[in-house]
């Protein structure tokens, strides 16, 4: 930890807020130039508001205020043309792309038998195809320079089945298989490709009225505080959730790795994986 990333150029997807903002600020603090992108719009099948253009601007402002160099781009990771254009723009402006944190993701709840085509497509498109689009776009420039660090954010749901989250779990299991496969193909190219699997992280994806209702169905107007002890009951450590900075530490560990760790899954999990293989 604590390596100097001065001169490195990083892209963080889903960087308007939450985990993405935390990762971006840490990269900037280590000296990297940081480009953050976000969809800056809502998706119809997602039950909570997504990051906004104003929040994306706030992330860039926070990077700049701390003395770093930041840029913000509006990108829908589901659209490979938008992703490719963003990478081309980054390489044209800064000369390189060294680091990718594929963080953009959405969540949603639905019993499997009631899951709509649209909800499935949005989930897989964002959480799996979006990661594919971003990793594919950076591999060529990283290969040319013989250096790259790719970290994808999956989930503890990518290690087990989850009721009402079949589409989410499938997308996160898919990210792990994707990362391990790309790691094999780039193992001799100076590129490492790894994945972080968090358990529940307190971000707007979780902290919203719909989640509170799911965890407290017997209450007419549950608050997120009502749900807190029920989250805590799910973890062996008895803690309800992680903070974004908890995940950032794992991300930075993999980015600052000297090139000896690839194809690995790092779980930040409050003990939730202790009873799984």
Polypeptide structure, described:
The protein has 277 residues and is of the alpha/beta class. The protein folds into two domains: 9-201 and 244-267, Rossmann fold (3-Layer(aba) Sandwich); 207-240, no CATH class. It is 42% helix and 14% strand. It has eight helices and seven strands; from the N terminus they run E-H-E-H-E-H-E-H-E-H-E-H-H-H-E. It has helices spanning 18-29, 53-65, 80-94, 117-145, 166-185, 209-215, 224-232, 244-255, and strands at residues 9-13, 33-38, 69-74, 99-102, 148-153, 191-198, 265-268. A seven-stranded parallel sheet has the order 3-2-1-4-5-6-7, sandwiched between helices. Helix 5 (166-185) links the parallel strand 5 (148-153) and strand 6. The protein is globular, with a radius of gyration of 18 Å. The two termini are 28 Å apart.
Question: CATH-wise, what's the superfamily of the largest domain?
Answer: NAD(P)-binding Rossmann-like Domain
By CATH reckoning, the class of the largest domain would read Alpha Beta
> In terms of per-residue confidence, which ranges show pLDDT below 50 for 5 or more consecutive residues?
none
Structural class: alpha/beta
Question: Which key features would you list for this structure?
Answer:
single chain, 277 residues, alpha/beta, Rossmann fold, 2 domains, seven-stranded parallel sheet, 14% strand, globular
Topology:
Blueprint: E1 9-13, H1 18-29, E2 33-38, H2 53-65, E3 69-74, H3 80-94, E4 99-102, H4 117-145, E5 148-153, H5 166-185, E6 191-198, H6 209-215, H7 224-232, H8 244-255, E7 265-268
Helix pairs in contact: 1-8, 3-4, 4-5, 6-7
